[in-house]
Design brief:
alpha/beta, Rossmann fold, 2 domains, nine-stranded mixed sheet, four-stranded antiparallel sheet, 5 helices, 25% helix, EC 2.7.6.2, Thiamine diphosphokinase, transferase
Length: 210
């Protein structure tokens, strides 16, 4: 089962929204994230949030459609996005896409990126996508198709990572990359697809376009 979470950060363009909506078996709108889904006539299976940002017009539309709603308290331990993620984790989804989860608030953006680690810990493939980037966190193998111009690998664990790259311009074989190093920024594929092997440690993989 594939889940999609559409949050209330910077909106992805309509093509990206439609692309990942078609892949999803279940769509959760988080607060204001419902607005772009409604505007594109995409069915929302569940609305989650404290509803501090959604336009009441859109909330009324979903209530009239009898959409399932989980209303959260404004003062709570988890963010609205994490609450939506927890719902899909409990339902044993195998893959989750997260849209509209980046923006001008770097604290929110960084926190949402790190939620990918929570998915990894639950054996769920997780991806955070915005208009320029697709991000995942891994401790194993990732197959990369040639969809983005740049591919960066950032160590996330203090002991660094050991990495092997296949199909990339800058090749690595069992290379140790220390935590905080920028060595694996801005690589790119020279074939239609490549493989990233994180032999040890934990890494953020960021595919991006300028």
């Amino acid at each position: 089962m594939i889940g999609l979470i559409v949050s209330g950060g910077n909106k992805v363009n309509d093509d990206i929204l439609k692309k990942y909506s078609k892949k999803a078996d279940f769509i959760i709108a988080v607060d204001k994230g419902a607005e772009s889904l409604i505007e594109n006539n995409i069915k929302i299976d569940l609305l989650v949030g404290d509803f501090d940002s959604i336009n009441k017009k859109y909330l009324n539309i979903l209530e009239e459609k009898k959409t399932s709603i989980i209303k959260l308290e404004i003062e709570k331990d988890d963010s609205d996005t994490e609450a939506a993620l927890n719902y899909l984790i409990k339902k044993k989804f195998s893959k989750i896409f997260m849209l509209n989860c980046t923006g001008s608030r770097l604290d929110h953006t960084f926190s949402n990126v790190l939620l990918l680690k929570k998915l990894l810990d639950n054996n769920i493939k997780g991806y955070l996508i915005d208009n320029n980037n697709r991000i995942t966190i891994t401790n194993s193998k990732v197959k990369i198709e040639k969809e983005y111009d740049n591919i960066s690998i950032i160590p996330l664990t203090l002991e660094g990572i050991n990495v092997t790259l296949e199909g990339f311009y800058y090749k690595l074989f069992n290379e140790n990359i220390e935590y905080g190093s920028s060595r694996c920024l801005s690589n790119f594929l020279i074939k239609d697809f490549g493989n990233i092997f994180i032999n040890s440690g934990l890494a953020i993989i960021i595919e991006s376009n300028d």
